[in-house]
Amino acid sequence: MTTDVSNREAMLAKIEELEAEHAKAVAGGGEKYVARHRARGKLTARERIELLVDEGSAFLELQPLIGWGSDFAVGGSMVTGIGVVEGVECLIVANDPTVKGGSLNPNSLKKSFRAAEIAARNGIPTINLTESGGADLPTQKDIFIPGGQGFRDLTRASAAKRPTISVVFGNSTAGGAYVPGMSDYVIMVKEAAKVFLAGPPLVKMATGEDTDDESLGGAEMHSRVSGSSDFLAVDERDAIRIARRVVARLNWRKRGPVPAPTFAEPELDPDGLLDLIPTDLKEPFDPREAILRIVDGISPDNAVAFDEFKPLYGSSLCVGWARLHGYEIGILANARGVLMSEEAQKAAQFIQLANQKDTPLLFLHNTTGYMVGTDYEQGGIIKHGAQMINAVSNSKVPHLTVIMGASYGAGNYGMNGRAYDPRFLFTWPSAKSAVMGPAQLAGVMEIVARQSAESKGEVFDAGGFAGVRAMVEGMIEEQSLPFFLSGLGYDDGVIDPRDTRTVLGICLSVLANQPVEGEMNFGVFRL
């Protein structure tokens, strides 16, 4: 592949923007509040996570940009992700007390629900690093009613034999008190943890009783009197040490696929992914160039890096088998953007085959959607697209999705977009996702407006509509960009393309905590 300097420069510029946005999440509540937090002898949320996970292991942060573009701090006042603790992959949720005392806003709720969903679907334990003032009261109308789901999720996790651990570092008030209250294991930090449904001022107002923090909800009281704490830690580091010992005693065993013991690095240099995506997403690119930079290379027990299936049929969709960090996967990748009947039928068959042999699927997006036009409608594009969507919808093997370029219209659905419950979904900084491209959408609006004027016997004001068109194109362009979509919680993170192999390897290892079992009952396929 010839290096495209313009593509590389454009991607590096987008990655630089991504790093700047990630820095906002890492900054938490800002320098002032981080300094105040440290002055109290406390660790930040990310420092707590770093001490908790095994030394030298990766932490896969999830949805770090949630809330981007909103009135709330980027990150949802918490850090969530997957880390390895004593050899066990755990879902970790850490309140960020530098952001409004770790109080929960609507973005926090979305983020915590997604984290709980990931833990449940992949069958892994959850560790809550708790320090939260509960609900952000000005937004209570948006979070009070749905917020109860978080406590429901904790109790259901326990019932499903997915242990839940809460380490309480500071205030855990009102709704925040139910997190340790409903966890299987609770660790509280001496002279720091304060867990109560109502603090001393509210107790005074409600009952007239005068009390203090320690008597009402201190760590020693809960460890010695109420029994709501299982372990009393002398400080934050001791609490994290105890949490690691709890995980070490869980007797945890994976029940899913076992990867090959050895594997080769990709055939092509992952750095070349920076050259791959055209600056104009209407230009196609060969997804095989991406695949061979992500999957395992050739080795004694892996004779071919990528075994393509049906390579001469439906050629604008590339599908086939590969290994990634030793795990068997099936891959569906858009080659020329558009999906036609042949591609849809090919995809449906391939998805069935993956379910027949219990193999996870990876979807790599660069699609403008299903083909339109008289010939294609008469050829049955609707029913063939329905076959593909039926297969995607009813497939039971785990799905992973990466949006590399365009992801427009029903192509987003057929390629297992967010609405189709992928186990994990990540986007590249080059990604765009919307009902259609900005120019196409604005053009459709102009045609409709022109036809409406003509039907009324009026003259269409093309000059006047030009301003509307420019406004619509700008709005759709902005709303299709990855930061905007990530801010809404529509992905699990925007990632540097060069990190794709590592991120997917972590995801495959996580989903291997559960058995992978396919589905052969797909309902009625419209033929």
UniProtKB/TrEMBL annotation:
Q: Which GO terms describe its molecular function?
A: ligase activity; transferase activity
Q: Do you know which SUPFAM superfamilies this protein is assigned to?
A: ClpP/crotonase (SSF52096)
Entry's Pfam families? Carboxyl_trans
Q: Per the database record, which ranges form the CoA carboxyltransferase N-terminal domain?
A: 11-262
Q: Which UniProt keywords apply?
A: Transferase
Stretches assigned to the CoA carboxyltransferase C-terminal domain: 269-527
InterPro entries assigned: AcCoA_carboxyl_beta, ClpP/crotonase-like_dom_sf, COA_CT_C, COA_CT_N, MCCB/AccD1-like
Protein name (record): Acetyl-CoA carboxylase, carboxyltransferase component
